[in-house]
Amino acid sequence: MKEFVTSSSNLGSVTLTLAAADEYFEQTTTLYNVWTPPNGTSLFAGEVGTQSNFSFSSDLKSVTFITTLSSMSNLNVLVPVRKTQSKEKIKTENTQIYMPYTLTSLTGGTISGQNWDSNTTNNDTNNTNTYDIDIASQRSSSSGQLLSTLTGLGVSTDLSLSINEFQLHHSDVVNLKKLYDTCNVNNYAYRVAIDSSDKKNIHQMSEEDFEFALKAYNFYEQTGSSPFNVTLTAVGGLTYDDVKNSLTISGIENPFSDEILNLFVSGVTAIPNPSDVPVKINDITDRYILDDGSKFNVLGLGKVLVGRQSLS
């Protein structure tokens, strides 16, 4: 039961409203009690009213009824109110943190900007028209002060946005698994598959995409050969063993050997764009201490701390 102090009109009309999002009025009208508080002086003090003509709003957040105690102020009203049962919050684990051009407003609305997904032409090269000019740290004044805006691309599509008006998707980061150094401030695109020549910019890449790119570059750095440059057909034909043997160079096995052999067995005759050279990327996780901020019964701010061995 919940108690209100309200007034009634000259016709005895009383309206009650609930503000809390998790509360609503019960429709058991016999439990609605109205009375005037006793004060020892008024003739009507302590009088109990009779209620009728109940009308509930569709969301049960408001109720209007008629009481016999008309034209009264400071009426005491005791009514049945229920609280909705809180649903357990379900957290979805995401393995991708979206970058500035996928911002949302503080109320969750979408902030439009450059559509990077459609801007893939030649983005595997040092393309200054792709990503580097919307990095917040590059928005500085002539005196070196960081500006409070992010600006989009192109004269006709400029987007200026105050930093107190947006939030990052998936900004409630609770665990960092890996830290990568792309060795360049520009947004290079990385090949992310053996059976296709698909490339993704870093802001589009998932955890699996980064792992693929790292394996590809490590093999290239160690052998000088691209892991995509594999021959699956030749004059006179190739056997399974021929292809398998070609996947080890300088004693180092191609990290995608299983996928390539499966393609060969399934009848694929060529790796798409075998001349693709992996773009440089390094795993620098071991240089840092990743603190997710969680303590016993407490979830605090996470931190990325420089490891001692990285300072020497």
Q: What do you see in this structure?
A:
This protein is of the alpha+beta class and 312 residues long. The chain folds into two domains: 2-83, Immunoglobulin-like, CATH 2.60.40; 100-295, no CATH class. Helices cover 11% and strands 22% of the residues. It contains three helices and 22 strands. The protein has helices at residues 207-223, 240-246, 257-265, and strands spanning 2-6, 13-17, 23-25, 33-35, 51-56, 62-67, 75-79, 81-83, 104-105, 149-150, 161-162, 166-167, 180-181, 189-191, 199-201, 248-249, 252-253, 282-283, 288-291, 294-295, 298-299, 303-306. The strands form ten sheets. Strands 1-7-4 form a three-stranded antiparallel sheet, with no helix packed on it. A three-stranded antiparallel sheet has the order 2-6-5, with no helix packed on it. Strand 16 and strand 17 form a beta hairpin. The radius of gyration is 33 Å and the shape is elongated. Mean pLDDT is 75; it is low at 99-103 and 112-159.
Summarize the structure.
The chain is α+β, with helices and mostly antiparallel strands. It is built from three helices and 22 strands.
Describe the secondary-structure layout.
Elements (H helix, E strand, L loop, with lengths): L1 E5 L6 E5 L5 E3 L7 E3 L15 E6 L5 E6 L7 E5 L1 E3 L20 E2 L43 E2 L10 E2 L3 E2 L12 E2 L7 E3 L7 E3 L5 H17 L16 H7 L1 E2 L2 E2 L3 H9 L16 E2 L4 E4 L2 E2 L2 E2 L3 E4 L6
Antiparallel strand pairs: 1-7, 2-6, 3-8, 4-7, 5-6, 9-12, 10-11, 13-18, 14-15, 16-17, 19-22, 20-21
Oligomer, anyone?
single chain
Q: What's the helix count?
A: 3
Number of strands: 22
**Which word captures the global form?**
elongated
Spans with pLDDT under 50 lasting ≥5 residues?
99-103, 112-159
Describe the main β-sheet briefly.
3 strands, antiparallel
Elements, N to C (H/E):
EEEEEEEEEEEEEEEHHEEHEEEEE
Rg over alpha carbons: 33 Å
Q: Portion of residues in helices? A: 10-25%
Strand order of the largest sheet: 1-7-4
Whole-number mean pLDDT: 75
